[in-house]
UniProtKB/TrEMBL annotation:
SUPFAM superfamilies: S-adenosyl-L-methionine-dependent methyltransferases. This is Methyltransferase type 11 domain-containing protein. Residues 53-139 form the Methyltransferase type domain. Pfam families: Methyltransf_11. InterPro entries: 23S_rRNA_MeTrnsfrase_RlmA, Methyltransf_11, SAM-dependent_MTases_sf. GO terms for molecular function: S-adenosylmethionine-dependent methyltransferase activity. It comes from Jeotgalibacillus malaysiensis.
Length: 250
């Protein structure tokens, strides 16, 4: 039986990933909702005549659900496979696509945008301020430094993230110091459940910065332990770390 599981895990390890599409995990994981609704917050702020930037758009999956005029929309993305995907999918629609490898040097003029949205993408506060219009809004939902702490350290004993200090209180202070008005700030630690160990393998390979050096071969004993947990309780549970900042440029 365990041999069959290991073969499945090795198969998951080899699966490719594009955009920011986790559909392979549909029905195999469950994420507890955050207390806020990111999409509703964005839609409530977004007006048809606004110039919109989506930072770290992935493959544009979320952006396209907003229905904003394409000619008033721009996106950034850093990962080369996603950049190519955006150029193929978003470029022909009239959406401006820019590859960004340095968050301190964004390829936009001063005061270019009324609204900048950013979900789980790096940012530089001073550069965000530069490209926002006066009274423009920056809405970001971030993955905090304690995301999946337990699962990461279980699979990779001794692992400590370099992002421990990345949390709401520290980031909010950066925006205040830069002269933003903070309209909202929230933090949460929602539960995430994995219903099969193969889902954990796939997730760990995609979110490689939380599981550096992960492989089925190296972490096999730990994966077997997680399989025993699934057989006993029906799932493996981890805690995510999320925070929200809505900042208005002055």
């Amino acid at each position: 039986m365990m041999k069959r599981y290991i073969e499945k895990w090795l198969s998951e390890e080899k699966e490719s990933f594009s955009g920011w599409d986790f559909s392979r995990l549909n029905g195999r994981t469950r994420e507890e909702d955050t207390p806020w609704d990111y999409k509703k917050i964005v839609l409530d702020a977004l007006q048809e005549d606004m110039h919109l930037l989506d930072m770290g758009t992935g493959g544009g999956e979320f952006l396209l659900t907003l229905g904003h005029p394409y000619e008033k929309t721009a996106v950034t993305e850093g990962w080369e496979p996603n950049v190519e995907l955006c150029r193929e999918k978003l470029g022909p629609l009239g959406i401006r696509v820019e590859q960004v490898l340095d968050d301190t040097k964004l390829p936009f003029e001063d005061g270019a945008f009324d609204l900048i949205i950013n979900r789980h993408e790096a940012y530089d506060v001073s550069e965000v301020k530069r490209i926002l219009k006066p009274d423009g809004l920056f809405i970001t939902q971030q993955v905090g430094g304690r995301n999946n702490d337990w699962l990461s350290s279980f699979l990779i004993p001794g692992h400590r993230t370099e992002y421990d200090e990345f949390c709401l209180v520290n980031e909010a202070e950066k925006f205040r110091t830069a002269g933003f008005n903070l309209l909202d700030q929230q933090e949460a630690f929602p539960k995430m459940r994995f219903y099969d160990v193969g889902a954990i393998v796939y997730y760990a390979k995609v979110i490689e910065w939380e599981f550096p050096g992960f492989s089925v071969e190296k972490q096999l004993e730990r994966l077997v332990e997680l399989q025993k947990t699934v057989e006993k309780t029906g799932y493996v549970e981890s805690l995510e770390h999320r925070f929200l900042i809505i900042a208005k440029n002055r």
